[in-house]
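Module 6 notes. Inverse folding takes a fixed backbone as the condition and produces residue identities as the prediction. Think of it as a translation problem where the source language is geometry and the target language is the twenty amino acids. Below is one complete input and output pair. Work through it position by position during the lab.
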């Protein structure tokens, strides 16, 4: 259970994601984009295949 999530760092930002995350068919990689509008910020995944996570 400890290795269930992986971590990727870009500068001072750390992103945790499931170890089973995979690229969708037709995509070579999964891209994480930081979006912002006024005072709100969020992350968007592009090219990620949907996976089910059970606790």
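Target side of the pair, the amino acids:
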């Amino acid at each position: 259970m400890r290795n269930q999530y992986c971590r990727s760092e870009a500068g001072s930002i750390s992103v945790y994601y499931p170890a089973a995350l995979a690229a969708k068919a037709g995509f070579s990689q999964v891209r994480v984009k930081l979006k912002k509008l006024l005072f709100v910020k969020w992350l968007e995944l592009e090219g990620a295949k949907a996976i089910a996570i059970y606790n």
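Reference fact for the lab report: Residues 22-55 form one domain.
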